[in-house]
Amino acid sequence: MRDAIVSSIRQSLNSARALPHAHTPIPLHPDSDRETLIAQFATEWLALGGQFERVKNADAVRRAIDLLREKRAQRILVWEPDSLPVALAALPQALRGAGMILMDASIPSEAASRRARLAEIESADVGITGADGVIAQIGGVAVKSGPGRSRLASLIVPTHLIFVTRDQFYATLADWWPNVNAEPSNVTVIAGPSRTSDIERVLTLGVHGPKETIVVCVE
Question: For residue 217, which of 58, 135, 189, 203 sits 20 to 30 Å off, Cα-Cα?
Answer without folding.
Answer: 203
